[in-house]
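EI: anyone free to look at a 257-residue chain?
SC: sure, send it
EI:
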Amino acid sequence: MESNLFDLSGKTALVTGGSRGIGYAIAEAFARQGANVALVARTARQVMEAANSIERRTGRRTWSFVFNLENCDGAEVLFGKVAEETGGIDILVNCAGTTVRGPSEDIDLKDWQRVQDVNLKSAFALSQAFCRGRKQSGAGGSIINIGSLACQGARPTIAAYSASKGGLLMLTKTLAVEWAKYGITVNAIGPGYIETELTAPLLADADFNEWVLSKTPLKRWGRPGDLVGTAILLASKAGQFITGQIVYVDGGWLALL
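SC: here you go
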């Protein structure tokens, strides 16, 4: 067996939502495997600090870009800027995400659209730009979308989020089938309940926390670091024959009746 199956040396990865949580963990893991990384987030201080931290901890080259992915119409311009400054993107991780919670009958359509734009439309726009560049170069590449348990099932009060993540799963499958001819693999990771700033209000809710633990055979919330092994697999030579799949990293959640 080859000894460098998981080596990402010589690759450059673009990670949206890379300033914290899951995105940061994946970006740092890629850097530890030899990749250079470009981080995109909407808050300048956070994304600069994240990039500097990864470069300091791993010795790999990092870049930071400030962009609000609610503005999907500018995504192609953003990608072009990132590709120009970095010399080209080999791996795209669509991790940026948001949500709105509340009874479905009360959700404002502007909030609904904001969730779709960040979670789904921006992933499509950046994937389009990625494909156009890789198609032209003939170099292939890897796209990894960060899905959710909501790709598989539903719970009350997160209709906009569930719709966006269900759409992201089917987008993953469609692009995998369509872009295989260009040597581009497209996959998704479906995290279980992960401790992040986005889920902090849920973790602090004693009843909700008890419900999560009761549904998770491993009896704990996941951590961002629990996802990095799967991300490295899907981005590396080890995963070059995997495409159109979603890998759930959920502590056994979906295996439990």
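EI: Residues 18 and 24 are 4 Å apart (CA to CA).
SC: 👍
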